[in-house]
Amino acid sequence: MRDFFAECLERYPVLEHCKNDILKSCNLLENAFRLGKKLLLCGNGGSAADCGHIAGELLKSFKSKRLVEDDFRRSAGDEIADNLQGALPAISLPDMVSINTAYANDCDPKYNFAQLVYALGFSGDVLLAISTSGNAKNVNLAATVARAKSMTVVGLTGESGGALAEKCDSCIRVPESETFKVQELHLPVYHTLCLMLEQKFFH
Fold first, then answer.
1. Is the dihedral of CA 159, 163, 164, 169 positive or negative?
2. Which helix (H) or strand (E) holds 71?
3. Phi-psi category of 166—alpha, beta or left, where left has phi over 0 and alpha has psi -120 to 50?
4. Domain range 4-61+88-202, its CATH number among 3.40.50.10490, 3.30.70.100, 3.30.200.20, 3.40.50.620
5. Bridge-based pairing state of the strands 90-92 and 152-157
6. Bridge partner residues of 105 (DSSP)
7. pLDDT in tens, 177-194
8. So what's the pLDDT on residue 1?
9. Could you give the CA distance from residue 61 to residue 182 in angstroms, rounded to a whole number?
């Protein structure tokens, strides 16, 4: 089995700074998925795009072939089973355009993600909250709601962690502070998380 985590640190040695938090976050996600829980993701701007990217890597094959469960194959038949791929349940909240725009129009827009976490999150689920500064108001409010619903909160931020770090069970604070540089380091972090999870569940 490939050690994707070691490969990540070899390619991006600056991430040695947050290696323990990456591993802790992976373990939290693995535990939730093994219990049949789901992942919600939120962020703004480039981080919103990252939410969709991460969900996409989890909802279908990323690097490895993912076979569906034998029980499903027996129920659905070979043709359907051969055309589907194993998945880990993940929902990118920024991609829910209709409800986000309706909420922003009708209500206080900083509560947009908080509303969706309240509606879709349940005890044991995980919220992956992405904010380069850690201070995005709507992301922090979503994290507060997640904690109130007994969800696990994983943060992905820049070096300071901002206000978000205090709301997280695990916060991956990449060692940059300028927005685009933080985002450049977020990508190898979440690609590595997705690769590690895929290996754990589908290898």
1. positive
2. helix 70-76
3. alpha
4. 3.40.50.10490
5. unpaired
6. none
7. 999 999 999 999 999 999
8. 63
9. 27
